[in-house]
Amino acid sequence: MSIIDNYVKNSNDVNSLQVEDACLPMSKSYLKIIGIPYYPYSDDRQTKLSSNDIKNILKQNHIFNNISLASKPRVIKVSPKSDMALVWIDIWDIQSGKNAKMLINRCFNVGNFIAIIRGANMNPGVPLCKNCWKWGHATLSCRIQGARCVKCNGPHKSEHHREFGWCCKANDKTNPPRLETKKGKPCPHSFKCSNCKGDHQADSVHCPFWRHRFNREWYIKKYTEIHENRSKSLRSNVNANPN
Ligand SMILES: [Zn+2]
Ligand SMILES: [Zn+2]
Ligand SMILES: [Zn+2]
Ligand SMILES: [Zn+2]
Q: pTM, whole model, 2 decimals?
């Protein structure tokens, strides 16, 4: 028995709600919808609410009559243990956001459930540069010459780490002598993260910079801290070596 039967049974025939291209100077508005069950069938925990189900649901609600989606709806669970969905939709709008304003805080029925539309920020988060692996600027606006390695932060591309990284070169002066890393084998050495000095690579999801990427305040505070520590250590170096 389906909870929202009428809405999902025709999932194959959803093409009338097209994902359209923008024609005039248009902008996108970002909305989220809450209150829809993540599992549309009460007796089936395998079938999850799909993007097409959402298109179908929107198509059947008159408040979306003149609305065009700018991309496929995204469906996630509200939280890992929840059985409710959080749906993100991007719609075409005009600069003033008229369409979004018309929809925000409106409710509509989905079977026995009441869905509510809320505004959403397109929060892209703080970017991680994939050229120098610092946070705060996009790869295309990186100002360093050349590239940095995500692993050792050396002046080479990450994919050339084995050839250019010092750790993978043979060295008989170390004790015990270091062997060359064989071609095609991954570098077995570990480095500290160039951003937080933690035991992971600079692009790791375990890095606090990654976890806080949607929190600009944390990030500004952190960078101020790093900057202050750097000037402090510069000052103490100057004091220690007055000449
Ligand atoms: Zn960069
Ligand atoms: Zn490297
Ligand atoms: Zn290595
Ligand atoms: Zn880190």
A: 0.49
